[in-house]
Structure formats: C-alpha cells, structure tokens
Amino acid sequence: MRRAFxxxxxxxxxxxxxxxxxxxxxxGCGKHEKSSAAEPARVTxxxxxxxxxxxxxxxxxxxxxxxxxxxxxxxxGQLVWDEDCTNRVxxxxxxxxxxVIAEVxxxxxxxxxxxxxxxxxxxxxxxxxxxxxxxxxxFEKALTxxxxxxxxxxxxxxxxxxxxxxxxxxxxxxQRAQLHLQxxxxxxxxxxxxxxxxxxxxxxxxxxxxxxxxxxxxxxxxANAPQLVLPLFTITDPTKLWLQLxxxxxxxxxxxxxxxxxxxxxxxxxxxxxGNITVVSAxxxxxxxxxxxxxxxxxxxxxxKAGMYVSVDVKELAPSANEVSLPSSAVIFLAxxxxxxxxxxxxxxxxxxxxxxxxxxxxxxVVRGVKPGERVxxxxxxxxxxxLPETEPAxxxxxxxxxx
Length: 404
Fold this sequence. Notes:
Elements: H1 2-37, E1 42-43, E2 47-49, E3 61-64, E4 66-67, E5 73-81, E6 87-89, E7 95-100, E8 107-108, E9 113-118, H2 120-151, H3 157-183, E10 194-198, E11 203-208, E12 215-216, H4 218-221, E13 233-236, E14 240-248, E15 260-265, E16 268-284, E17 290-298, E18 309-314, E19 324-327, E20 332-334, E21 337-345, E22 348-359, E23 364-368, E24 375-379, H5 381-387
Antiparallel strand pairs: 1-2, 2-22, 3-24, 4-19, 5-14, 5-18, 6-13, 7-9, 7-12, 8-11, 9-10, 11-13, 14-17, 15-16, 15-18, 16-17, 19-23, 20-21, 21-22, 22-23
C-alpha cells in the first residue's frame, strides 16, 4: 500500500515537472515572438525602414503616382477678322465723296480705286509741291549766277554762300513736299483736287461706310479713340479668321500656345471646325479676371462669319513626364516646402521634396519630383515624418493645400 502511494507521488511529481518545462518553453516562445514584433524601425536622416511584421505598416496606404492628364477645356469665343491680313481704310485728307467704286463682296487688288472725292487738302499738297519745284529752279539759277560773278571778281564770297544756303533750303522743301504728296497718292504730274482712295492690300471688301456726297474729315480719323470711328472700307481675306477666347483663371493650366482646338456654332450644329491657339496673354484682365487668348481658324469653306459666337473644346495635351497626380493627403508641408514619402524598396520609405504645381480637383494635386509609377504614401505620411530625426520645427509639419 505504501509502495503504491509512493509510486503515485513520483508520477505526480514527474507530471508537474513536465508541465512546468512545457510552460517555460511556451513562455519563452511567446516572449521571442513579442520581441520580434516589437523590433524598432531602422531610422536614418531621411528614411524609415520597418520589419515585415511591424504594426505601423497597417496604418500606411500606398498609391502609385500617375501621369497627370490634361483634360479638355470647355470655353466660348468669338470669331473676328484675322488682323494680319485685314486693313481698315481711312482718308488722310478731308473732302467730299464724289464717286464710290468698290462694293461689299468685291475682290480688289492692291492699288485699285475704292472711291473718289474732291479734297482741298489734297489740292494744297499738290500746290505745295508745285511751288517747291518752282522755288528750287529759281534758287538754282541764282546760285549759278552768283558763282559766275564770283569767278570774275564781281561778287563777294558771302553772296555765293547766301545763294548756296537758299538753294539747299529749296532742295529740302521740294523733297518734303514731294514725299507728302506721294504719301497721299499723288505724283505731281498735274495740279488737281481729285483724291483717289485706293486699296492698300489685296482682298475682299467686307464692309463699306461711305456714300456719294458724304463729308470726310481727317481729324476725326486721328481722334483719341479711333476704334470708335467707322472706317470707310474694310478689306480682308475672309478665308482666315481669328478666334478670341476668354480663359477663366481656373482653366489657365489647360490652355497653352500651339494647342489644337475644335469649335462648333449653332449655324452648323453637325460640323466641327479646327483651330490652333497662337497666343495666351501674360496677364489677367483686372476687371473680368480672365486671360485673353487668340487662335487661328481655317475658313477655307467660307461657312464661318466674323462676329459669330462659338463653343470651343481645347484638346488635351499629351501627359507630361514631369507631372504626376497624387492624393492631396500624400503631400505634407514643412518649413515652407512640400514633401512626400516614396517607397523605393519594400517597407522602406524615403522623404523627398517635391514642387507643388496646382490643384487638379478637390482631392488631387499635381506635383513635380516624383516619376510616374513610383509608390507614394497616401495615408500616414505625418506618422513617418514624426519618426525621423527632428531637424525642423515639428509644428510646421501639416498636411495642407492652403498655399496652392
């Protein structure tokens, strides 16, 4: 009986020792796993690297940077004459219209007569030229006479010098009168008050604001606001038009010179016309807060008319290799600069400075400094920044879009 009891105690003791050893072993394993999970991250001056089991990885979200796609800008515009091949004809002299030769729609060549008028101003210019020619001939004879007398000792040197000065002044006056007359279209062959208004360029007469008997005043044409004065004739090439655009400030990033566009008009709802932006103004209109842009439009079919209002689709540009779109939460603002955290290797995150370009939408920003396809931390960037050695005021590290 005692032997059986002793044997039973030995068995119980052995079981207790075995249980204790197993518990210690399990306890040691648990401590090892806990120690592995709590292994600190490797932090350098500009990067944080976690172990594969680090709990911080569960708080981070990663996105791939995408090339920024410029979208189509929807604008409205007005068609006007192409000023590079348009001329508005005014009269440099006053007078009364005697005859109208050119009519709207007529094709004219450079130098063709558009109208005729009687002009005292033109007659005065012609008379000034005739007088200058006569005076020059008289002073030329006087100079020749004084030189001849001086050769025979019958004239003083000062008389020759005076005659030479008079002759030089007469030459200058004749040249002035001749240039003035030529500028008005006269040639001085014969005296006349008939002034011909001629076409300065070749093209089509698209506007006429003159009638027989109409009084024309040159001083009105030279007023402080010539844009308020109607030209006598307007000549242009109607196959070439300009498109004037008003670009809102929030659309400026989508509109550039040499960018193609498509325009539609209610007159031809099923037709699309092509154009190309040539220039975008360097400043905003202070009153309307828009930028003025200009485009050329091919009107070889003659369907479009100056003055038409059209709807415009500015076609998107090819993606820029230097611009990517990111969630706004991926960018942090620190001491006046913008940063993101890029994952160059698995579980390793490097802090990189970027250049903020603009807002693309309510939650997306466009930056430069990250290549398309690179993995960027979209959530948790502030946590990573707090783990880096503090080299700049931590209070400035704020996820912000206020300065865009």
